[in-house]
Design a protein that fits this description.
Length: 308
């Protein structure tokens, strides 16, 4: 099928954003410690290389806190050296998200100026891929690579067909994982329990600042309320990138501008705040109030203000 003029424009803009984020990630890498490598994408990348050589990724890769299918996602990037692999992954993910969110308007592209989007480049995250997949029913199975973010994104689905796609796609990836290693689930759980760095993952709703997020229950029929509540109830980092899905709550240009501005302001204030930054766990705990007040709260207010 030949792309329409609108589709060609969307593709051109999406590729431009992908290239911009590739270079942004590259720039961050250039200013970082050379040992950073592929950032947080280093763990899925190492796991993918372990799978290619027939090894158990949970035994050969430290801090691989993801389910086995995440290694499949990283397989196409294994021919590249780590830094380049991370940069390409972020660029392609942002391009995919940009193309998907512009199906009916251009203003959703404002999200690429938000704090969570910028943190994707800083930390080399796969979150844009998950948000993009959540907007394409046939790709929903990809959410299995990060179950915590998947909870909120799946809760946002309204069509039974979408959930069927998610079950089939995710089921295929899980079945393939068990076919390669019947014990991977036990190894994954053991890795999470044994690694002290997992203490940095907290469900916002269990914190004093996150308890008001339970108000989303009053709008449970709204897909965006389920998105907020779902994300608030699962363990996550407070380094801003895990909250990128919350930008989907915006339904107008003004709302997207508000969410983007609040997230950047919160990130800027958090950057200069006096918190304990000695370990990932203490840093995440210190940043959590800024994430909740700067991203969750504005999204929650938007949902609560909608007509029931």
């Amino acid at each position: 099928m030949i792309p329409t003029k609108s589709q060609r424009a969307r593709l051109a803009i999406a590729l431009s954003i992908g290239v911009a984020y590739f270079w942004l990630t590259h720039g961050v890498n250039a200013l970082s410690d050379p040992r950073k490598g592929a950032g947080d994408f280093a763990w899925p990348l190492s796991a993918a290389r372990a799978v290619l050589t027939g090894h158990d990724p949970y035994l050969t890769t430290t801090k691989f806190f993801y389910p086995y299918p995440t290694a499949f996602f990283a397989l196409p990037f294994t021919p590249l050296e780590p830094r380049l692999a991370g940069e390409v992954m972020v660029g392609l993910g942002c391009a995919a998200l940009a193309f998907v969110v512009t199906r009916s308007a251009w203003w959703p592209l404002i999200m690429f100026l938000s704090g969570p989007a910028l943190q994707v480049a800083v930390s080399v995250q796969l979150t844009p891929w998950l948000v993009a997949a959540s907007l394409v029913p046939a790709c929903l199975g990809l959410l299995v690579i990060k179950p915590t973010v998947a909870v909120g994104l799946l809760g946002r689905q309204t069509a039974v067909r979408a959930l069927v796609y998610a079950a089939i796609g995710g089921g295929v990836l899980l079945a393939l994982s068990f076919a390669l290693d019947i014990h991977w689930l036990a190894h994954w759980r053991a890795t999470i329990r044994a690694e002290p760095d997992t203490m940095q993952y907290t469900a916002p709703i269990l914190s004093w600042v996150g308890m008001p997020l339970g108000l989303a229950l009053f709008r449970w029929r709204d897909p965006d309320a389920r998105l907020i509540l779902g994300l608030a109830c699962v363990p996550q980092n407070a380094f801003f990138y895990d909250q990128l899905p919350l930008l989907l709550v915006a339904r107008t240009r003004v709302q997207m501008l508000v969410l983007t501005f609040c997230s950047v302001l919160a990130m800027a204030v958090a950057l200069h705040a006096t918190i304990d930054r000695h370990t990932p766990a203490t840093t995440s705990a210190g940043l959590l109030p800024f994430v909740v007040m700067g991203i969750y709260y504005p999204a929650l207010v938007m949902v609560l203000r909608r007509a029931a």
